[in-house]
Amino acid sequence: MRINIFLMLIFFNVISYASVVTDSEIKKLKQGEIIIKQQANEYSGGQNSRTYIAIAIFKTDIDTIFNILTDFKTHPEFMPDLKSIIVNKREDGVITTDNTIGLPLGKVKKYRLLFKLNKKDSDAQISWKMIDWPEVPKLQSIDNTIGYWKFEKDKRVNDGIIVTYYVFTDPGEIPFGLGWIVDYFTEESIPKVLTNTRRYLSKKTE
Questions:
Q1: What is the CATH number of the domain that holds 42?
Q2: Facing residues of 56 across strands?
């Protein structure tokens, strides 16, 4: 039941940020910039939790980027710090993956994600939520992450689509002296996600 409620609230009601992107922001996006905005947390989390939205223009179509980002086995080739991803269940557009990320100083974190895929002609989305992975001790994981990719056509963009990346991350309790982990999960990693994905897309479609 918890999963069904989540599907209704998140997987089918992803906000269209493209509709509120201003013309001046569109101009910046067309020049290749990535717009990143910190948001108020919509989900409960600890003092280190953060929510960000990143928006960019990708010179591609919805089918192409959707297919690339749902080919999960390739994610370690371009997703920052992702050491491995294993798809352990795929059924009716719902996918679960086991993810391992490597951080500086030899830190490794593992977590399990539940993905929901939804694609139409005018837009598509890939949403995720962290779910329990009983075999992984709490200290080896993060507390939570929820987010989505959304791909939309926009009449102001003739040669591409607007891509929105939304992420809520709660790394959990951070030991004294390791506060940089919070920034690493947010300010440092988010631009890399968009930049690396766009570069990988260009490489695969050139």
A1: 3.30.530.20
A2: 163
Q: What is the pTM of this model?
A: 0.88
Structure tokens at 193: 């996600």
Helix (H, G, I), strand (E, B) or coil at 60: coil
Q: 161-183: per-residue pLDDT in tens?
A: 999 999 998 887 766 556 566 66
CA 24, 147, 101, 161 torsion-angle sign: negative
Write the CA distances from 36 to 101, 145, 172, 190, integer angstroms. 22, 18, 23, 8
Q: Give exposure, 13-44, as e/b (b: 16+ Cβ within 10 Å).
A: ebeebbeebeeeebeebeeeebbbeeeeeeee
Please count the structural domains in the chain: 1
